[in-house]
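TODO from last week: model AarF/ABC1/UbiB kinase family protein.
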Amino acid sequence: MSEQPPTSRIARTRRFGGLVAGQGLRWAGTRAANALRSEEAADAATGERAAATANELVKQLGQMRGAAMKIGQVLSTVEFTAIPESEREEFKNTLATLRDDVPPLPFKAIEKLLKEELGTPAASAFSEFEREAFAAASIGQVHRAITKDGREVAVKVQYPGIAEAVETDLRNLQMLFPLVRRLAPGLDVKALAGELRERIGEELDYEVEAQHHRAMERGWRGHPFVFIPPVDTQLSHRRVLVTELMRGRRFDVVKTLPDTERDRFGEIVFRFFFGTLTHLRRAAGDPHPGNYLYLEDGRVGFLDFGLMRVVDADYLQGERELAQAIMRNDARAVKADLARLGYLPKPDEFEAEALLGQLRMAASWYLDPGRRRLTSADVAALIEEGSSPRSPYFAQMRRQTIPPQALLIRRMESLVFTTLGDVRAEADWNALGSEYWESAPPSTPLGEQDHAFWQR
């Protein structure tokens, strides 16, 4: 079991301030020493300093629940071009999996909060309540319970004091700007910070998450292969979220299944996230495999909709037009679309053909036609190819940024790709994707079922 996370504003600010000040001094020392080094030795020293900074960033964020950990998870989608390529992927993976290493708090640490939210002790509000949590993440943990009318539910409880800790972390976020700029020179950190503040602020309020969850459940209700557990609105509150308990095979088990089942699972994951974006205009920012369950009836159940953005219809249409321009190999349209969407701070600095080449390379897994079985090695190779200093697109990538509305879309794509590689799923990903960005006809039996559902 873990001790309660520090919530003191001073203590948390000291963590951020100490990290930034210490690394600032070390960067200054590296720059001073580089003045006496050859260009090659200076580049190597700068890379070593960037790697050390990245490791310290992971260490500090991993010790703090709340927004600090969530900041790390979102940063996992950013290309940290200053970190040596040999260490970059490990760093991003570590950031992405911060949520996996969170031990739950003992029941006595959350007992008072539960009583405050429910208006009565948990033992009175439920006929049964398991005191030991079965899952924990950056902002809360989950307990199994049985309601008074006999329904099995999952009770997500926010950590006591975490609201104040998150507020402090978000105020302190600007302290990290100098470090993040050194690790990712092309990133618009102010836009990133604004998006993080808005999204994490919403995630902290379980009533907002419940609204997202209910919207997702209504949108996918009755779907032939996707299931969202209903929310218990009477038992849910600002710091407690109660949903129907799902039982099924977790991701580690799914990875051991035969090819046909893994392929089906992978196609469902792809269709769920791209379908959510297309039909509901919602970008789910946390498509983590820990939030999927392969149910016994063949459906896949999905959880956790705290980190979510409703994308403007015009912006989403712009993203669709960008994908269509890439598919047509229309370099001029690609550049114009990227500029209009906000990816190019100074459009005149970019060559259209180079931008097209970069995007075709980065999204080749779902832009190249034909069936393809993805693996973790494929994911690592493509990410390395897209972020290596040896890439012909490296210099232009450093001058690009991620628009706020695209942040969770890009995070969704990245983590879905990683999930498909982990589960070793095979499909014609281009044919599947074309159903969403080009309104192409269904390409698989699952696609026919999905199309019929959304035509209701």
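Done. The mean pLDDT is 83.
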